[in-house]
Amino acid sequence: MLGFLSTTRTTSSVFRVSTGIRELDEALEGGIPKGSWVAITGEPGTGKSILCMHFAWAGLLAGDPVVYITTEAEFRDVVRQAKMFNMDFESRRIHDISSREEPSETPEIVVIDIFGLLKIARQLTESYESTSGEGAKEIVKKKRFAALDIQTLIAAIHEAYRILGVLREEKAKSPYRHVRLIIDSMSAFWADKPAMARKYSYDLKIATHRENVTAYLVSQYAMTTRSTFGFGLEHIADGVFHLWMENVEETREVKRYMIIKKMRMTNHAKSAFKLDIIPGRGVVLELIK
Ligand SMILES: Nc1ncnc2c1ncn2[C@@H]1O[C@H](COP(=O)(O)OP(=O)(O)OP(=O)(O)O)[C@@H](O)[C@H]1O
Ligand SMILES: [Mg+2]
Question: Which end of the chain has the smaller Cβ count within 10 Å, N or C?
């Protein structure tokens, strides 16, 4: 356990961020290079969301502020699921962005689920309407922000940084402390327009990619085409963890695997891991020799 309590370890001047899973850290020369964007791709039920919980939990143990965006489930379901694996998020100072009140103490983790995104979308729309003035009705109409707009996501992330107190001044874009960012999943933002995946990934990266932000971005995998749902994120990411399952109709059981497809600045393991999800522990990886 102690192996990943420190947030960063340095190998040849690269700061490494723990994934919360010892075998994975070892396969990455100590962890993910700080400031990387890691795409987590895979079919339903392969363990993507649980991998995110480990990454967030390792951050809390290490004292890193965490921004946790969950479009797939309400955060209380994330908490419930994580508890089954001995990660007790409730014991930490959590602030839900959809809350009406500002936190009385600086939180350790800011949570953004669909209700939080709705609130930010409403605020964006209101502030746009109030600044656009007379005669701009046409534009105002077009600028009604939705919860799953990429601009809403970007605004929500900046609001989370403000609440976490990691910006030196209100208008600053870059956190001065190391932050962990989790987006589960990105696919929700291009669900009705998969051709936009690459552009949206770029927009997000330009707006939020900073040397002090290490991110996990989940991307769902389309079973039918055997490719990620929406093309683009994998190219923009600095690293890719790909998860899959053997054909259950043939094997008649759930057999999961994971492979590090890429990780910049890292001589990472090239073989796959067998991936198990175990009560009380969560994702357990074993490198296939
Ligand atoms: N308490 C538990 N003990 C053991 N295994 C569990 C437990 N809870 C969940 N699992 C396993 O974890 C799987 C879900 O993993 P996870 O939610 O990370 O998948 P995912 O890749 O995020 O899927 P999706 O794309 O549908 O979001 C379940 O299908 C189940 O097999
Ligand atoms: Mg999931």
Answer: C
What is the pTM for the complete model shown? 0.93
Tokens of 272: 């796959």
In sequence order, the 6+-apart residues with CB closer than 8 A to the CB of 226 are none
Going from the Cα of 167 to the center of ligand 1, the distance in angstroms, rounded, reads 35
Distance 125 CA to ligand 2 centre (A): 29
CA of 40 to the centre of ligand 2 (A): 10
Region of 254 (left: φ > 0; alpha: ψ -120 to 50; beta: rest) is beta
Tell me the Cα Rg of the chain. 19
pLDDT at res. 246: 95
pLDDT, tens digit (0-9, with 9 covering 90-100), for 20-52: 999 999 999 999 999 999 999 999 999 999 999
Under 8 Å between Cβ of 263 and 238: yes
71 pLDDT above the threshold of 80:
yes
* Pocket test residue of 21, 46, 217 for ligand 1, highest count of atoms within 8 A of CB: 46
Considering every ligand atom, which ligand is closest to the CA of 81?
1
The answer to whether residues 120 and 97 touch, using CB atoms and an 8 Å cutoff, is yes
Whose alpha carbon is nearest atom 5 of ligand 1? Answer: 277
The model's confidence at residue 72, banded by pLDDT at 50, 70 and 90, is confident
How far, in Å, from the CA of 50 to the mean position of ligand 2?
A: 7
Q: Which residues line ligand 1 (CB under 6 A)?
A: 42, 44-50, 72, 84, 220, 277, 279
pLDDT at 179 over 80: yes
Contact status, residue 277 vs residue 48, Cβ threshold 8 Å? no
